[in-house]
Write a structure and sequence with these properties.
With 293 residues, the chain is of the alpha+beta class. The chain has two domains: 147 residues, Probable inorganic polyphosphate/atp-NAD kinase, domain 1 (Rossmann fold), CATH 3.40.50.10330; 137 residues, Tumour Suppressor Smad4 (Sandwich). It contains six helices and 18 strands. The strands form four sheets. A six-stranded antiparallel sheet has the order 7-6-17-14-9-10, with no helix packed on it. Strands 13-12-11-8-15-16 form a six-stranded antiparallel sheet, with no helix packed on it. The C terminus is likely disordered.
Length: 293
């Protein structure tokens, strides 16, 4: 049966589109349709990405993304609306989310064309700022971060969960992370690693000015609100909101950033021989067997 596959390539990562062409040939030689999308400006805003990905529709069996984790995240945020599974081929550096390395492409394509893979539903975040400085429907696969802007002093961020104050963190800011994003900025800030299938959110302070500030783990159906604490003398300060490390917005002390899980999920492809904790050990650990040291 003829299927439709889509290749989304960050052309800055695949010089001359050599890898893209090889994959497209493999798919077409197997009797399938292959749509190649290489004209997306991945350094632009989400609107530009959306326009570039209009050619990927619900009839696409799988979207193969060539680039790094940033390319995969941007693509996944758009394609979650269409329910298309996404698999990443790492042409960047760390590539934690892009599960296929260059030397494993042929094997991975065999799995994909044979349908020998699973699709994981990954929780996504939606953030809104009601009121005058309104932002609506900010979507994140990894995290939403509130940090101090420029050279401003420490900020105090009030954290509420379901309308009840849960913490007030004085420091460089706060990360709200999904399980997928737990291995990103959250991990660097001392937050916990969470298996990606979990339905929860993690609130982690950044460089807290306290000995007892720790991450808070809450349910996937809870609601978080973040506000700058004006009582600490930061009323005139402007904080910065960063979505997935890509989209940057400003937040005033009068604003309330409301975050919850999004109604739709990102769909990421997982192969049977790819273990989440195996990837963690390979990417972040020494890669050695302790018994052999």
């Amino acid at each position: 049966m003829k299927e439709k596959y889509c290749l989304v390539t960050n052309a800055t990562k695949d010089k001359g589109l050599k890898v893209t062409a090889e994959i497209a040939d493999r798919i077409r030689n197997a009797g399938h349709e292959c749509v190649i999308i290489t004209d997306i400006d991945f350094k632009g805003d989400s609107a530009e990405i959306l326009r570039g990905l209009e050619r990927v529709d619900a009839t696409c069996r799988c979207c193969i993304v060539l680039g790094g984790d940033g390319t995969l995240i941007r693509t996944s945020r758009v394609l979650c609306e269409k329910g298309v599974p996404v698999v990443g081929i790492n042409l960047g550096m760390l590539g934690f989310l892009s599960v296929v390395e260059k030397n494993d492409i042929e094997k991975a394509l065999g799995y994909i064309l044979d349908g020998n893979y699973e699709v994981e539903d990954r929780l996504m975040l939606r953030a809104d700022i009601p009121g005058q400085n309104a932002y609506k429907g900010l979507l994140a696969l990894n995290d939403i971060v509130v940090t101090r802007s420029g050279r401003s002093r420490l900020i105090s961020v009030i954290v509420k969960v379901n309308g009840v104050q849960a913490a007030s963190f004085l420091g460089d800011g706060v990360i709200v992370s999904t399980p997928t994003g737990s291995t990103g900025y959250n991990l660097s800030a001392g937050g916990p690693i969470v298996t990606p299938a979990a339905k929860l959110m993690i609130i982690t302070p950044i460089c807290p000015h306290s000995f007892n500030s720790r991450s808070i783990v809450i349910g996937g159906n809870d609601k978080i609100s973040l506000m700058i604490n004006a009582k600490d003398g930061t009323a005139s300060e402007t904080a910065v909101i960063t979505v997935d490390g890509q989209d940057v917005l400003e937040m005033d002390s009068d604003d309330e950033l409301v975050i919850g899980s999004y109604e739709k999920t990102a769909k990421l492809v997982r192969f049977e021989d790819t273990s989440f904790f195996g990837v963690i050990d390979r990417k972040f650990g020494s890669g050695e067997n302790p018994a052999e040291r």
